[in-house]
């Protein structure tokens, strides 16, 4: 359940968290790139063909194949199928699967006699494999990583209205948000940053815990570990202290970003787009 | 000389285990008790053990019995303080390169039979002495590649072990020695297929499923456990003109490339002879230009197959027309119980998409759908069949769409547990959020999982739920201290306990009735579902953290 009450100090910490984003030029690795899958998600291994063969294959593909299978090999509906998701193409290593298809020898494809010259057929197969090597293990279209559609689809005036109504208790356009659109030049990064209250590549604000055992002075420090049985905090002097929890132990955790996370269920996508459109104008 | 001493010791250790006890069909039909013979414990998939020595009162006395670290690869494992013999390493596989001797973690279920545990990581199987943690043999598969994301474990039948490899082979070993009997290619690794499931063995059928993220046809195959001969193949999506479900796709080409992975083991109902499993997401996953606006059957569904023929008997679409990679490949649980005053044979599942379902498992009749959390926002209302109705406004968009759960789901592959004592289904539930950006606006759509970028926005809560199947609402909701799933799945016992990782470095036991924490041990991030078995009158509780197995017993 979202908690609606925010303490003033946590609001200040959120503001501080936003400020932490500000160092310009920082490489927000995770945002700058497409999210990659696990390193264990390996694309199928294919032999690398000589570049001149691939280049020759490209010319032949454009001349003989593109009209049906399109320039990016993703096919045309009811004309030519998507080669990049064809099992015949995916399993091909040295032309053994693709070449009979290109030559029109596969059953049902006898009208497909596009090329017959041995080297030409091999070159087109090599070109197809070279494009397949770009799709990774999860079917990314060639060039997908390079495309970056403009995510600014919101209305800045509505965003300003929203900001002034909902955000100014903790933030201000002339204060902590001043110049935010310049300091975070990528709108997508900026959008992530304000939704989360901080972002990848930026130090996460410190989570603290206060532990109160009966009859003992309260212990406060950076929360290292909290569970139902044990609490470990790092004290101001840098030492660690662990405390066994009993039903009488009171543990309060102060996570500066919790309040921001609790806003997640309240946003509409339009709110998000509008606020981002507004924040990018704060130059 | 030293070597001889070791082999003499090995002979002594192996001696008493040479009477490997064959696993019969009758053994596999029994409810989970002293042994653990199939992925989900027994065919009902309840992961409910009737052992009671470890219970609400005694669990506080649970202490370490042994620890064993599994060392993958084909080099002999170093002898450690708790290992006294170099176990034989049997090497198989069709790969020619040394590309698979890599770290991994244990995300599978151990099988236990007659004092031997079978433990896996991708490309590796170990037989482990359940009393001591000593490795008895280690089988290593030289891979040709493929996604090495996890392995869910082996299957046992007669004196044989069966498992799947990331490069899509079904391999059968001798249980006693680890020697290979045969292997069969399930699918082409070059075609993007990879295999993680634990096979399920029912009568004389070895059921092997697959995964693939490049729009390939997905299927479940049945093999003869004796000969390795293929018996039948069930395709998840229509492959030929006239196949049922074709009208839910844009065209036959779309259906043939429609995905629907079979990467998690299901449950078996002997009375109807139905194998019931959940299927994965349709592909392309995030865009529907190629696959149309229909329900895209039988992806993201519970399906019931006749185990002898592989024919579909009924289905229920738990995520009709999925657009968020919300596989429905969660373990379905079979329960006999009262529903609306009437005794029924039920099947239930808490799905990755945040919804919980109860069906009549004989007919497939839909009985209940519930939304487990208010955070879940991708659907609006229900279809006329009672499934969650995809809200197109929550599809990935160029400006970004805030979705909950993130595509990883409120839960993922982690198996749930069900206790007949409490009538509750135990499952994780994470209220996660992400921004889903459409990066490829081509109207034809992308392939596989491509064409989008997903950026995590955090979670507002991570829980273990005790779901009352009669109402579809959680009777208790225990907050976990991490931001992800507690661990690799759950275990319920007749001792009134639920065991799980807590997502923040401990294996814990909750009171099954109310979720109160009763016991905890700080062994690290639990990576598989805790299990229990009984040997020599001792009840063991076992679980894995990364590459290490921990066994506990009452002290």
TrEMBL record, chain A:
Keyword vocabulary terms for this entry: Heme, Iron, Metal-binding
Keyword ATP-binding assigned: no
Record domain Cytochrome c: where: 52-132, 154-283
Molecular function per GO: electron transfer activity; heme binding; metal ion binding
InterPro entries given in the database record: Cyt_c-like_dom (IPR009056), Cyt_c-like_dom_sf (IPR036909), Cytochrome_c_Oxidase_Subunit (IPR050597)
Domain of life assignment: Bacteria
Annotated protein name in UniProt: C-type cytochrome
From TrEMBL, chain B:
InterPro entries: Acido_non_PQQ (IPR030939), PQQ_b-propeller_rpt (IPR018391), PQQ_rpt_dom (IPR002372), Quinoprotein_ADH-like_sf (IPR011047), Quinoprotein_DH_CS (IPR001479)
GO MF entries: oxidoreductase activity
Domain Pyrrolo-quinoline quinone repeat: 36-368, 462-553
Keywords, in A-Z order: Oxidoreductase, PQQ, Signal
Keyword Transmembrane: no
Cofactor(s) demanded: pyrroloquinoline quinone
Keyword Phosphoprotein annotated: no
Top-level division of the source organism's lineage: Bacteria
Signal peptide annotation: 1-22
Gene Ontology CC: one annotated term: outer membrane-bounded periplasmic space
Pfam families found in the cross-reference section: PQQ, PQQ_2
Residue span of region Disordered: 382-401
Entry's family note: Belongs to the bacterial PQQ dehydrogenase family.
PANTHER family with a match to the protein in the record: QUINOPROTEIN ALCOHOL DEHYDROGENASE (CYTOCHROME C), QUINOPROTEIN ETHANOL DEHYDROGENASE
UniProt protein name: Acido-empty-quinoprotein group A
């Amino acid at each position: 359940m979202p908690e609606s009450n925010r303490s003033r100090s946590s609001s200040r910490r959120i503001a501080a968290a936003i400020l932490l984003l500000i160092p310009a030029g920082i490489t927000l690795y995770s945002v700058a790139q497409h999210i990659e899958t696990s390193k264990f998600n390996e694309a199928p291994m294919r032999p690398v063909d000589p570049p001149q063969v691939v280049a020759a294959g490209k010319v032949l593909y454009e001349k003989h194949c593109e009209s049906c299978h399109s320039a990016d090999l993703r096919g045309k509906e009811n004309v030519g199928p998507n080669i990049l998701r064809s099992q015949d193409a995916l399993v091909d290593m040295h032309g053994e699967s693709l070449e009979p298809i290109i030559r029109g020898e596969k059953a049902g494809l006898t009208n497909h006699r596009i090329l017959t010259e041995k080297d030409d057929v091999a070159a087109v197969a090599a070109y197809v494999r070279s494009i397949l090597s770009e799709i990774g293990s999860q079917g990314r279209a060639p060039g997908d990583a390079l495309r970056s559609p403009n995510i600014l689809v919101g209305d800045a005036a509505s965003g300003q209205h929203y900001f002034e109504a909902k955000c100014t208790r903790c933030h201000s356009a002339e204060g902590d948000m001043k110049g935010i659109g310049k300091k975070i030049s990528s709108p997508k990064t900026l959008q992530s940053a304000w939704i989360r209250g901080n972002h990848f590549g930026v130090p996460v604000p410190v989570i603290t815990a206060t532990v109160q055992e009966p009859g003992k002075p309260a212990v406060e420090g950076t929360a290292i570990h909290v569970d139902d049985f044990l609490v470990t905090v790092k004290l101001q002097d840098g030492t660690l202290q662990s405390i066994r929890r009993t039903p009488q132990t009171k543990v309060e955790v102060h996570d500066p970003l919790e309040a921001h996370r609790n806003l997640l269920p309240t946003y509409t996508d339009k709110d998000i787009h509008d606020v981002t459109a507004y924040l990018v104008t704060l130059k | 000389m030293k070597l001889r001493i070791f082999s003499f010791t090995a002979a002594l250790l192996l001696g008493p285990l040479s009477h490997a006890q064959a696993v019969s069909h009758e053994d596999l039909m029994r409810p989970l008790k002293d042994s653990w013979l199939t992925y989900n414990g027994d065919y009902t998939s309840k992961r409910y053990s009737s052992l009671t020595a470890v219970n609400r009162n005694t669990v506080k006395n649970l202490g370490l019995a042994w620890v064993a670290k599994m060392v993958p690869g084909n080099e002999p494992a170093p002898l450690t303080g708790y290992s006294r013999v170099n176990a034989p390493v049997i090497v198989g596989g069709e790969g020619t390169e040394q590309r698979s001797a890599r770290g991994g973690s244990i995300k599978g279920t151990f099988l236990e039979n007659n004092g031997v545990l079978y433990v896996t990581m991708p490309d590796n199987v170990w037989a482990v002495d359940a009393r001591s943690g000593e490795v008895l043999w280690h089988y290593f598969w030289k891979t040709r590649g493929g996604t090495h994301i996890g392995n869910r474990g082996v299957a046992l039948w007669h004196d044989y072990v069966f498992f799947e490899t990331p490069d899509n082979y079904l391999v059968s070993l001798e249980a006693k020695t680890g020697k290979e009997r045969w292997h069969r290619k399930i699918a082409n690794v070059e075609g993007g297929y990879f295999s993680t499931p634990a096979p399920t063995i029912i009568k004389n059928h070895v059921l092997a499923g697959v995964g693939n993220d490049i729009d390939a046809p997905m299927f479940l195959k049945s093999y003869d456990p004796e000969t390795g001969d293929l018996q039948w193949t069930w395709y998840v999506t229509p492959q030929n003109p006239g196949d049922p479900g074709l009208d839910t796709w844009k065209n036959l080409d779309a259906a043939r490339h429609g995905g629907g992975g079979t990467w998690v083991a299901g449950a078996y109902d002997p009375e109807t002879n139905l194998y019931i499993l959940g299927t994965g997401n349709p592909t392309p996953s995030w865009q529907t230009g190629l696959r149309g606006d229909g329900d895209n059957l039988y992806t993201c569904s519970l399906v019931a197959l006749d185990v002898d023929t592989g024919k579909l008997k009924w289905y229920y679409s738990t995520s009709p027309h999925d657009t968020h990679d919300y596989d429905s490949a969660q373990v379905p649980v079979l329960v006999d119980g009262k529903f609306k005053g009437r005794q029924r044979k039920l099947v239930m599942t808490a799905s990755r998409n945040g919804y919980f379902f109860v069906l009549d498992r004989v007919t497939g009749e839909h009985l209940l759908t519930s939304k487990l959390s208010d955070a879940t926002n991708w659907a609006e209302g229900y279809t006329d069949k009672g499934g969650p109705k995809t809200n197109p406004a929550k599809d990935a968009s160029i400006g970004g769409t805030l979705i909950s759960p993130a595509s990883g789901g409120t839960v993922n592959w982690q198996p749930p547990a069900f206790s007949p004592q409490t009538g509750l289904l135990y499952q994780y539930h994470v209220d996660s959020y992400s921004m889903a950006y459409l990066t490829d606006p081509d109207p034809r759509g992308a392939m596989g999982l491509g064409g989008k970028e997903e950026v995590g926005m955090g979670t507002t809560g991570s829980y273990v739920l005790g779901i009352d199947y009669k109402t579809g609402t959680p009777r208790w909701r225990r907050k976990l201290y991490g931001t992800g799933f507690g661990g690799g799945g759950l275990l319920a016992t007749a001792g009134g306990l639920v065991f799980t990782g807590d997502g923040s470095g401990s294996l814990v036991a909750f009171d099954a009735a109310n979720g109160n924490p009763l016991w905890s041990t700080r062994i690290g991030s639990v990576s598989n579902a805790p299990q229990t078995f009984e040997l020599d009158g001792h009840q063991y509780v076992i679980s894995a953290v990364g590459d290490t197995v921990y066994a506990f017993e009452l002290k």
